[in-house]
Amino acid sequence: MHVAILVKEFPPDVIGGTETQTVRMARELAVESGHEVTVYTKSYPGPEPHEDVPFDLVRVPTWHYSPFVSTLTFVLAATLYLLGDARNIDVLQCMMIYPSGAVGYLVSRLTGLPYFAWIRGGDYYFAREVAFKRRLLATVFDDALVLVQTESVAEDVREEFPDATLGVLGNGVDIPDRVADGDAATFVGRLKHQKGVHNLVSAVDGLDEEVVIVGDGPEREYLERLADGVDADITFIGEVPPDRVPEYLLSSKLLVLPAVDGEGLPNVLLEAMAHGVPVVSTTVAGIPDVVQDGETGYVVPPDDVDALADRIRRVCEDDAHRAELADNARAFVESEYAWDRLLAELDDVYESVAG
Fold this sequence. Notes:
Elements: E1 2-7, H1 17-31, E2 36-42, E3 56-60, H2 67-85, E4 91-95, H3 97-111, E5 115-118, H4 122-125, H5 131-143, E6 145-148, H6 151-160, E7 165-168, E8 184-188, H7 197-203, E9 210-214, H8 220-228, E10 233-238, H9 245-250, E11 252-257, H10 267-274, E12 279-282, H11 287-290, E13 297-300, H12 305-317, H13 319-336, H14 339-354
Parallel strand pairs: 1-2, 1-4, 2-3, 4-5, 5-6, 6-7, 8-9, 8-11, 9-10, 11-12, 12-13
Helix pairs in contact: 2-3, 3-5, 7-12, 10-13
């Protein structure tokens, strides 16, 4: 089967959870499942990066004068490219319902190409708050299958769009041979408000543990100033490539993901659990479906700094309890999110959508 995957951003230009997951998914679909795979994504200024990948990569022309112009030109160019290629494609997989799902709708209406969209997090939660984006969401929900990553996200969607046709399918994750045996309380992700790192900095005031913050973003300078005002050993690592994230997880005793909004199912959460690292996070979107409170980690309400601080200390200070959480977390991810399971379920989706 020829599978086309449409994703707005792609490494090395943007490295986030959706982008990292898309690269690995395309590789697994091509190598393990035997599909012909083509990924359509934005182009960026400068020399074209060299990608040594077992799938075709099409970078559509995109102007980057502003976020709006970038998104608009991506939608127009991706639509034109897919209109030209549609006769050779069996199914179109749109990573993010907005804006990729809107492209899928247009191309399907004009060519009959079967498609589905896959909500990743902020693409849905932020888009639904903007009137014209919400209308685009409704159009896709009325027209196609939309995958979500957890049952909690499905419930959120049904409250807003009760007639949506939904399926639940999470991310894939490798189960490494090694498990973590480190000492750090670690955060990995973009340093932007929705990640809640400001709450982490406040919560670890007075904590006698090493705190490592891996990632970069628009709030880094603010967070570094905030960290200067608390009594804690906080180290900012900066952005690291995806293949270096495991070394920081292996050096951790705890992953803290204090998201305040816009998350679907953060990939780093699954990676940490696969490495035997328990997680303290928040009751945002699909996170509680994976971080089962008191079993595989802890969840607290977003922006509740006192509760966040309490759970961080509880995990850090009780070695036996932390080991129990770590074992449960690894076993849960291995049973529910291994790549072979995801690929089998994704093949079922392709067969259902393509007919």
